[in-house]
Amino acid sequence: xxxxxRFIIEILIIGIIVFFINTFLFQLCFVRGExxxxxxxxxxxxxxxxxDLQIKRxxxxxxxxxxxxxxxxxxxxxxxxINILDGYLYVNGEKxxxxxxxxxxxxxxxxxxxxxxxxxxxxxxxxSIDSRFDEIGIITKKNIIGKIIxxxxx
Length: 154
Fold this sequence. Notes:
Blueprint: H1 3-25, E1 26-30, E2 45-49, E3 60-65, E4 68-76, E5 81-85, E6 88-91, E7 94-95, E8 111-112, E9 117-121, E10 139-140, E11 144-151
Antiparallel strand pairs: 1-2, 2-11, 3-4, 3-11, 4-9, 5-6, 5-8, 6-7, 9-10
C-alpha cells in the first residue's frame, strides 16, 4: 500500500475515533458569557462526560434546550421542592446558599420537581438566564447532554 493511501486511511480512522468519543463519551465545551462566574470564566475550556449520567445536586451540567447549549449548576434534582424567597434559594425547605438573588423570575411560590426534572441556575445568579425564566425553565433529563468532569486550570 502506498504512503498516500495509508495516510488517508489513518486520518479516517482517527476521525472516526474522535467522532465516536465526542458523540458518545466526552465533549469539549467552551464557557460563553459570565453566568457561571466565579466558578467558570468566559472562554474557559471544559470536558463533559456524556455517558452514565447520574446528576447530583451541585453538579455542573451541559444542557441543550431549543437548540442552545448552556452550562449551569443543577441545584434542584428530581422530587426536590424549590423556592426563592427574599432573595435566597431554598431546596426542600432549607436555605441553599448565601448568594443573593435579585430576580426570582417565575418562581413566585414553591415548586416541586417531577421525577425527571431539574432546576438549574448560573453561579452568577443575577447575570444568568436559567430555570427561573421562560427561556430555559425547568429542564428534563433528556435535555442534559453532559456533566462537567474537567475544568481548564484545575
